[in-house]
From TrEMBL:
This is Gibberellin-regulated protein. The keyword Signal applies. Belongs to the GASA family. Keywords: Signal. PANTHER family: EXTENSIN, PROLINE-RICH PROTEIN, GIBBERELLIN-REGULATED PROTEIN 6. The keyword Signal applies. It comes from Actinidia chinensis var. chinensis (Chinese soft-hair kiwi). Pfam families: GASA (PF02704). It comes from the Eukaryota. Residues 1-26 form the signal peptide.
Amino acid sequence: MSITKFSAFLLLALLSISMLQTLVLANHGHGGHHKNRNGYGPGSLKSFQCPSQCSRRCSKTQYHKPCMFFCQKCCNKCLCVPPGFYGNKGVCPCYNNWKTKEGGPKCP
């Protein structure tokens, strides 16, 4: 009887370790939509990071106020700001696909 209990305990322990390993891998970006290697992409930011990322994104435009307004609105929704000062929106699909009523891009 004790061998049966030991075998059941060992099997349960191995199963638990396997499940834990799967969770750890998923939480470190090896599964699902988590931060990618270069730090950009869907959900790569926390909302408190939006102002600094939008300052970077909008730093070269002459329309700084509207750029900051819409960038922060988009960042808070998408938790992503593309790299660079212009373009590169493909790395943030939510940011790229959010359109105005007229069909133009909402996010700078």
